[in-house]
Amino acid sequence: MSVISRFSKVFLFEEKDALLFRLDPRIKLIKSIILMVIVFFIQDPIKIGILMATLLVEFKILGKVLFKVLRSILYLTPILILIIVANYLATYDIIDTLSPLLRFLLFVMAVDLFFFTTSPDDFSLTLEALRLPMTISLSFSLALRFIPTLSMELNDIIEAQISRGLQLDKGNILTRIRNYIPLLIPLIVLSIKRSIEVAEALEIRGLRPGVKRTSYKTLVLSGVDYAYIIISLIIIIAIYLLELKHLISLAKL
Amino acid sequence: MIIFDNVWFKYGDRDYVLKNINITIKEGEIVCILGDNGAGKTTLLKHINGLLKPSKGEVYVDKLNTKETSVSDLAKKVALVFQYPERMFFTESVWKEVEFALANFGFEEDIRVHRIRKVLNMFWLWEYRDRSPFTLSGGEQRRLAIAIALAWDPKYVVLDEPTAGQDGFQREILIDIIRNIVYREKTIILATHDIEFVFELPECRIIVLNKGEIIYDGSSVELFNNYPELLIEAGLEPPSLSKLIQTLRKEGKYVVFKNYDDAVDKIYNLIKGG
Ligand SMILES: Nc1ncnc2c1ncn2[C@@H]1O[C@H](COP(=O)(O)OP(=O)(O)OP(=O)(O)O)[C@@H](O)[C@H]1O
Ligand SMILES: [Mg+2]
What we know:
heterodimer, A: mainly alpha, 2 domains, flat, B: alpha/beta, 11 helices
């Protein structure tokens, strides 16, 4: 309906019946981080292109999230244009322009790989596995958990104010910005109320910072997890070591 | 007149949550939509001011097809008061909260002042006009939300769960308010699962929704006296007096209760008559 509610949908976690969703979140995090790091070592746009293609296939077949990933990239269009223009003006070279652009896209896809396929529950378990201080991991996972609630509430607020005659996309820039006040104030009031409620609920249930907690659900690596990360590593290393020039000369023979 | 013509609705690619809805609502009616959680009441109400458009079928408000009319045009005719409307307040005074809607609908300054004064008085809120809406009691906030909806003089007033979170006394006031609105020649459509509240409004036409389908459309007295099992089918508890009626009938005493006062009278007579 509105830009914000469409935008917030990108960040909503949707459980799908697909392999990527069943993998151990730590494995996905490792792969994500490897990809993010390798972005800084591979310069060749063709290699990055091949790596991206393997990821896109993975998103499509193993994750069923290709559409979401493409949409998340679409929202970054302004940044993409900025990268293209800035690099082209600096180098006047297509290859030198293409390379940073593709590396940025690969980076985004690496982030998506973890976040689009990891449920809030798995996310908190991962944070705990990383042995972060409990206050940090808990705040993170609570914040993540409340994104869907918040986006539903925002939708309710938008509908209620439209029913009171608010027209969001009317008027000049200034009135348009002012139009968001009737949405933001109720949203903030609700969030504050909610955070007080959550704090009370946590206290009632005996949450004490500093005390060691035990988990109800624990992460266990399975054969599929090992297979996935090993195959992923082989593909990434193979692409990294690929001697393209050699291949091209081979093809010419 | 509001017409639901063969309306089907689903959110995205999920199952249908409204199935084959056919309703005609005439001017001056009070329509109560009864149904359990998730029955589709809110979804149905959102079709009346065009927030949702049917997946199949049409909804007409005074001959306007909601698919071809903007929400802001429909909202002028149809005031929709959401569940917990007080959560949507955002201004610093009761006065401004009412004025917001009037300004949105483009009313001139002098008409605004007149209207605000009128509705605040009608809902006993005049003395609170400079207070922050956040500092009112729950009942006062609910009254303010309904007052706001009447300020722009809509023809239809749609209330979603008007009694949610309200105590007994506030519910009595709400019944008075609803009668008052109808007296002003407006049409009311309300959704609730508060059976005892509906029982107190015997002039209501009742529509029972069960999993998105209409399983009853008729008078309140008829439903509570003769078809309490339909309520159970829809996952609702019949009013306690419905059970009494069934017991008395089994004992050979044929009674019809219109509401609590009527029931008290008749039971008193039964006891007196022996
Ligand atoms: N925005 C939405 N997206 C997807 N499904 C929805 C949405 N809103 C409601 N639903 C689903 O549609 C069905 C009907 O919901 P609706 O809110 O209309 O029921 P209701 O009768 O108003 O219930 P309640 O008494 O709890 O308010 C439910 O199964 C609900 O989960
Ligand atoms: Mg509802």
